[in-house]
């Protein structure tokens, strides 16, 4: 492609490849490809595709445990979204920013990012990502020792996943809601949600689903069986 001078298309192909590799659980390779694509997009002035590469880089570095690099890239992605006046991209970047801020232990900032992301996703009628933002904020409250606030947000996330028909995220959301309820001394309600989460998770057979079922089964087991 480079011989034909089609750097724009080469960048798009590399960027799509990076995103696919990241979904396959290979963040280091994804970061390498995304960096290559980013150079080409900046050279050709393709800012929309540059945003996608920056978002891929942010998530890749976060998954590799390198949050400072992740923050650098996701802040660039957010600036690009603002320049493009694109609320869809802005909301997406804010979700990732919140996750990175949690990794950096900047929890109050993460709350702000998640709440802003939820508002933007609601405005563009993206129920699933709005629910992800609620779930992110709930997780932050849980880490801050505020399980009742966490439960409220996880309940909103569960409602969003249920309405959208996203069964996998529903299972994960119910698991997190149950944990927040248990921490709020509402053990019976927690068990109800864990039981439903286990039923929903049983619809999936991949390794991640098996790990989730093991966690839920352990949470449901009587203390004498642990």
Automatic annotation (TrEMBL):
It comes from the Bacteria. It holds the Pfam family TPR_12. Transmembrane segments: none annotated. This is Tetratricopeptide (TPR) repeat protein. It comes from Nocardiopsis aegyptia.
